[in-house]
Amino acid sequence: MSAIFGISFILFVILAFIATDLVIGFHHTVIFTWGSVLLICFISKFFLNGLFKRISGALLGAIIFFIITNFGVWTLGSYGYEFNDLVLCYISALPFFGYTITSTLFFSMLIEGIYLIISKNKKNYFKKI
User: Fold this and answer.
1) Which residues contact 97 (CB under 8 A, 6 or more apart)?
2) Residue 61 burial (CB < 10 Å; 0-12/13-18/19+)?
3) Which end of the chain is more exposed for a tag (fewer CB within 10 A), N or C?
4) What is the Cα–Cα distance from 3 to 26, expressed in whole angstroms?
5) Could you tell me which of 4, 2, 34 has the C-alpha nearest to residue 19?
6) How far is C-alpha 103 from the geometric centre of its chain's CA atoms?
7) What's the CA gap between 7 and 107, in Å, rounded?
8) Could you give phi then psi for residue 109, rounded to 5 degrees?
9) What are the residue ranges spanned by the domains of the chain?
10) Nearest to 45 by CA among 71, 9, 94, 99
11) Close Cβ partners of 65 (under 8 Å, ≥ 6 residues apart)
12) Residues 36-42: contacts with CB within 8 Å, 24+ apart?
C-alpha cells in the first residue's frame, strides 16, 4: 500500500500495528515484525511498474518478513543460540511460510484483478463522455 500511497502511508501501517497489538497483545518480537514491515514499505516503490514486478515485490515482501521475524525469534533464545538452532527455527516456521506465500499470491492476484476491472471500467466511462 505504501507503494501506491507513498511514504506518508507508513504512519497508517504503524497505527494499525499499535491497534492490533493493543488487542492481541504486545510480544517480544515486535521490533522485528514492525521493522520488517517498515522495510517492506520503503522498498515497495521499486515494484510498481508492471504486473510481474508487483507480484514479485509482494513475494519478496513475504520472504523478507519470514527471514527477519524468524531471525528475531531465534535471537530471543527460543531455540538456543547455535547455528543449528537457527536452522531449526527457520525449518519449524516453513509450514507457516507456505500459508504466507499462498495468501500473498491469492490476495495479490485478487487485488490485481480488481484493479484491472476498475481500470477498464474507468476507460469505458470516459469514452462515453
Assistant:
1) 62, 66
2) buried
3) C
4) 27
5) 34
6) 11
7) 22
8) -70, -40
9) 2-128
10) 9
11) 33, 36, 37, 40, 100
12) 36/64, 36/65, 36/67, 36/68, 36/69, 37/13, 37/65, 38/10, 38/13, 38/14, 39/64, 39/68, 40/64, 40/65, 41/1, 41/2, 41/7, 41/9, 41/10, 41/13, 42/2, 42/7, 42/10
Q: Which tens digit of pLDDT belongs to each residue from 16-52?
A: 888 998 998 888 889 999 899 889 888 888 888 888 8
Higher pLDDT, 10 or 3: 10
Has this prediction a pTM greater than 0.90? no
pLDDT at 104 over 90: yes
**Cell numbers placing 4:** 501506491
What's the confidence (pLDDT) of residue 93? 96
